[in-house]
Amino acid sequence: MRKLGIVAALAALLFTLHSPATAQVKQMYWTTSGMFGPFPITDLIPSVPKDKARDVTIPVSMWIIDHPKGLVVFDTGNNVAISDGGCKSYWAPGNCDGLRPSQKRDDVIDRQLQKAGFSADKVKVVVTSHAHLDHIGNIKMFPKAIHVIQKKELYQAWWPEKFQRAGGVFVVGDFDGPARDFTYLELDGDYDLFGDGTVMVLSTPGHTLGHQSMKVKLASGKTIIMSQDAIWMQENLDGYPAGLNYSVKDYTNSVNRLKMMRDIENADLFFAHDQDQFKAKGNQWYK
């Protein structure tokens, strides 16, 4: 009997040594930095055929991730300056007229954190999918955080290609001044954020040079993939590519990568700007 007890103790020790980390994502929240639209879907996805065309009013997705090792924000939405009709005082008029943002002050990420029971100064990590105006807009609200971004994307933000500068999708005011001196974790590929496999940053270039998505494994065992602009909406997944891409080849590879991860891991795949998906599943906690 004594030998059996020793064997059992050794087996328990080995299981402890080789078992995965016990830290789990407590919960995560999907919200939006106001809405864009309405406008024809073909303004964003020109390849959608006429029989499938529709008007859309789309969310500007942001995520709050509550992990035992620290609070994470994935994308900070549109800059606070465009709230309540102030768009043309901050964005290029063409973007205001084309995107038609309806952001209210309470839609901004700091207020969204407050609604969720947190505060901006308690955010440990800000992950930015890419440096377009509707995703990096409020990083200056998080001067104490570690900012996680692909190194190529950070360079594109500060020194964008000429064809991207002309479109006004990079707004230098979002990341100039004090943001130059923030603490950046500059990535080159995928990254396990907390070292326990529960929050993964995924390199998904194509929409921009250094776009990144995220994958989160919840305590329930459910896996959620947040594509952000690697996949705007269901029509992209159906084979109609987004109309704004740095590289169509890389974009297609990233779409296929996320689809395969979804299927292999039986994950839920959430898009950045899908009105139907957000209406059904947005503004709620996932546990």
Largest sheet at a glance? 7 strands, mixed
User: Any idea how many domains?
Assistant: 1
Fraction in helix: 25-40%
- Number of contiguous helices: 8
Helix and strand string, N-terminal first? HEEEHHEEHHEEEEEHHEHE
User: Which band does the percent of strand residues land in?
Assistant: 25-35%
Task: Note poorly predicted spans.
Answer: 7-21
Largest sheet, spatial ordering of strands: 6-5-4-3-2-1-12
Distance between the amino and carboxyl termini: 43 Å
**Which overall shape is indicated by the principal axes computed on the Cα atoms?**
globular
CATH superfamily: Ribonuclease Z/Hydroxyacylglutathione hydrolase-like
Q: Mean pLDDT, rounded to whole units?
A: 92
CATH class: Alpha Beta
What's the CATH architecture name?
A: 4-Layer Sandwich
CATH T-level fold name = Metallo-beta-lactamase, Chain A
How large is the radius of gyration? 20 Å
The total count of strands amounts to 12
Structural class: alpha/beta
